[in-house]
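User: Hey, quick favor. My workstation is busy. Could you predict this chain's structure for me?
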Amino acid sequence: MKTSALLRFSLASLLVAASLPAQSVAQMLPAARETAGNGVSVKNAIVAVVRSQRGTSLADLIEEAEDIRPEHRAIISEILRFVPVACRNRIKNFYVRYDDPKERGLAGKDTLIISGNLPPEEFRAVLVHELLGHVTDLGCLTGTPESGASAYKDGNERIYENDPSVLFYRLSWASATERKSGLRTRDFVSGYAHDADAFEDLAESVTFYFFHREEFRRMAKTNRILAAKFHWIETYVFPAGNTPSLSAYQWDRNAIPWDATKLAYVWVASEK
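Assistant: No problem, here it is.
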């Protein structure tokens, strides 16, 4: 499968939107590049690598990846259960970095990289942002050339008019990086969603829904933009409306959080 044209990442202390050519992944991960073949391999236990194989599910490979710490294998397996199989099978490369990376998470169409140095709750939230946000957006929800090019591009890569993600982008963005005029910060679930671009807006919104669904619903009752985003997520990402966690965050009408992956929640999916 064609490698994603761009990868998106979040910085550990201050989230700043950025993108990198896909071919730079190998340059960022020399240890992984040196040893990665089919299946699981690792270089000095610094970068744990899982590469998909024909006939073997990503979930099975993750469970067998002894160089991924047990607590991380458990979290990854939990989150993968919320990803449709067809979408899950698009992931070709999965990296967990234990070499003190600057980036907390990085994802494109078929590649995901996450820092293994995060607290468990944050590791789970960043994984949701990258996997259910960016991988779903850029790799799973796609359009066709016959529908024509939309006003949105991921770098130089066209996003087609009938890509379902375009319906989300149009709620707040005139282009991938230009917000529509007249929007307020409270039309977004986080400051990062507002300040970055259409892709981060989508990933932050999915993350906020995943961990704080009822708060999102409460916010949407008085905000038509958020109501439309909530409806889009329940249509294209979580049609069953499952809520795997309980929010420990209370919405403040006069202020929005900066980063949806930093908000407190109680994980309950494993208890059900």
